[in-house]
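Methods — Computational structure assignment.
A single polypeptide chain was analysed. Its primary sequence is given first, followed by the predicted tertiary structure written as structure tokens.
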Amino acid sequence: MSEAKEFKHVHVVRFHETDAAGVVYFANLLTFCHEAYEAALAAVGIDVALFFSRDRNVAVPVIHAEADFYRPVRCGEAIAIHLIPKQLTAHSFEIHYAIFRADASSQAEQRGKAIARALTRHVCIDAQTRQRHDLTKPLTEWIASLSG
């Protein structure tokens, strides 16, 4: 079995993304993850404006999300969101996210010092009937390109 590849997206934390204690507000972690997901789709040529449009025949909503936090992140800090998607069924997939400080000097250092981890699970549905629909070819190709 080949080793999974991953996509990496860097985000600099802004003041409005923090809470009264000066650390990233917990819900914003999922926003950062979704930002990385959008960037990963765009990186392989998927038109994200069309992908998330209400005018599409299919929709790909998030049906589950979870996050674990290990270290605080403050305003001005750059974080690197690494993601690896995994197809679960003909109509669903999940994305594993690992978040590190962007200035970690090596990949090995990053692996041991994740500041957070998250997971989102998605299902493809027919936009009109809301019934499950097979993943689109561009989406399965995107998943395969990062799944190894």
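Note: The first strand starts at residue 7 and ends at 12.
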